[in-house]
Specification:
single chain; three-stranded antiparallel β-sheet
Length: 177
């Protein structure tokens, strides 16, 4: 198998693991299922080719749903981690683009020899741009706003649902007459 083929197999196994974690399958069981899928895909890829092997398993999501039962009592930490990382990257990229826009506005205003500060109100952060009198170079000072970190944490906790074991235990109790 080529390096690209190994990457395609690894990608399928990673997506399979993502959906297993989403269903709440415990880590040990997920590790065993990942190893089994990786071995089966490798054997099938050697016999028929990687494309045929990947087409043979179908959707990793459908495979995860078909091979396991949902575990509603387990928090989904890995799933939440993936979503939190995506949230972190997207929001920080948006904030960085806002900072770049602010810097471009300051440079366009021809404020050489001065320090210009302002607030990116959407993000709730302060930015300062210092342009030297010579006109070459600039200094940018900005702190990542707390709102981005809070949003990432909220997404992580909402996706992980650490209260799932408590909520499930509460529903197992018999109703009082």
């Amino acid at each position: 198998m080529t390096a690209i083929d190994r990457l395609r197999v690894a990608s399928a196994v990673l997506r399979y693991d993502f959906w297993l974690d989403y269903r709440g399958v415990p880590r040990r069981q997920r590790r065993d299922l990942r190893g089994e899928l990786r071995a089966n895909l490798t054997d099938a890829a050697r016999a028929e080719g990687v494309r045929a092997a990947l087409l043979g398993i179908g959707s990793p999501k459908a495979l995860a749903y078909a091979t396991t039962e949902a575990h509603p009592t387990r928090a989904r930490w890995s799933f939440a981690g993936y979503l939190a990382i995506a949230t972190f990257v997207v929001t920080h990229l948006g904030w960085l683009l806002s900072v770049v826009g602010f810097v471009n506005g300051v440079r366009a205003s021809d404020a050489t020899g001065r320090t210009v500060g302002g607030e990116l109100s959407f993000w709730g952060s302060q930015v300062e741009v210092a342009l030297p009198p010579s006109g070459g170079g600039l200094t940018v000072s900005a702190a990542v706003p707390l709102s981005l970190w809070v949003l990432t944490l909220v997404v992580f906790l909402s996706a992980a649902q650490p209260w799932r074991p408590l909520a499930h235990r509460h529903t197992d109790r018999p109703a009082h007459p």
